[in-house]
Amino acid sequence: MTSKAPNPERREGRPDPLDFLDLDAQLIDEERMVRDNVRDWVQERVLPGIEDWFEKSEFPLDVAQELGKMGLLGMHLSGYGCAGTNAVSYGLACLELEAGDSGFRSFVSVQGSLAMFPIWKFGSEEQKEEWLPKMAAGEAIGCFGLSEPDFGSDPANMRTRAHKEGADWVLSGTKMWITNGGIADVAVVWAQTDEGVRGFIVPRGTRGFAAKDIERKLSLRASVTSELVFDECRLPAEAMLPGVRGMRGPLSCLNEARFGITWGVMGAARTCYSTALDYAKSRVQFGQPIASFQLTQEKLVAMLVELSKGTLLALHLGRMKDEGRLAHEQVSLGKLNNVREALRIAREARSILGASGITLEYPIIRHMNNLESVYTYEGTNEIHTLILGQAITGIEAFE
Asked: Per the CB 3.0–4.6 Å rule, which of 182, 199, 329, 368 could disulfide with 391?
C-alpha cells in the first residue's frame, strides 16, 4: 500500500492524515513530479507482485531497465546519462520506493550511491565513460564491496588486500552482505594496499571473482544479498579508482546511501501507519470500530507524530544537501532517528492489526522485517550513536 491522494477531509479544513504538516507545499513542481511518477510506478509494478517476490525470496531483475528509463539510477549525479536531479528529488524517490518495499529502494540506492557514485566521483574519465551510461540505463548492475565477515563496523581493518604484480593488481579476500552481489555486472571493491585503502572496479566474469547468494533470509527477501570472493583476482592497472585513497573513499559513498535511507524508511513507515489507520476504522470490536478506542487513537497519533517529524527531518537534510552544507554527522542523525522511529511505527502498526498483522495479506510484517536489516546496514544504530557522540563532545569512543 502506498499513500493515497490527499484526503477529502483536507478540503474541509482538516489536515490530511497522510501529510499532516502539509509538506507537499514545501516542494517545487519538479520534486512533486518525481515523487508522483515513482509513486505511480510502485503502485503499478511493485505492489501487485511484492508479496510473492518476498515469499519466494526473488528480485524481479527486469525492473532494472525500467528504473533506468525513469531516470532513477544515479539520478542525483550529473552527466554520463544521469538525470542530475537535486537531493530532495532523490530522497522523495527513495521514500516512494521504500513505501513499496525496502528491497527496491536498496537496489536503487546501491546502484546510484554505492556503485555509480564512486566511479563518478573518483574514477578516471575512461572508467566513467565505460560504466556510468550503462549503469544509468539499467543495462549494467553494480554492487559495493566493503563489509567483510569479521569487519562490518570496523572496515578500516579489512583483510581484503590488493598487491602489485608488474603493471597488474592482484586482489584477494572476501566481502559479505553485499546487496546486488549475485546479479551485478560490476563490483566496486575496497581493499588494503601498500599505499592505503584503494577502490577497484571488478567486472563480472573476471577470473578469480565469484559471488554466492546468501539464502534463508527473513528480511529483505525481495533483494539479492551475496558473498563476494576474490581468489588471486588479477586486474589491470586501470581497474583502480585513481581519485581517492584511504577510508574517505568508501565512507563518502556510505554517506550518500545513508541520506537515501533517511528518506526511504519514512516511506515504509507511512505504509505501515496508513495500513493501520485504515484497518482501525474498519475493524469492529465490541460493536464499534477500534479507531474509536482511546488506546488505539494513542497508537495512531504516536505513529503520526514520528512520521511527520521524520519526514520533515529528511526534507530539511535534503535542502541542506542541495545547498552544499550537509555534514556527514547530520546524515548520521537522520539515519539513526528515522530508522529507529520507522521500526517503532511498524511494530505499533502491527499491534493494531493483531494476528492479521503477521500475514503477507498486509504489508506491515514485511516492512517490519525489512527495517530490522535497514536498522543495521549502512552503519549500525550503535555506530551512528558514537558518530554523534564524537560530534558533540569532541571525544572518539569507538574503541
From this structure: 329
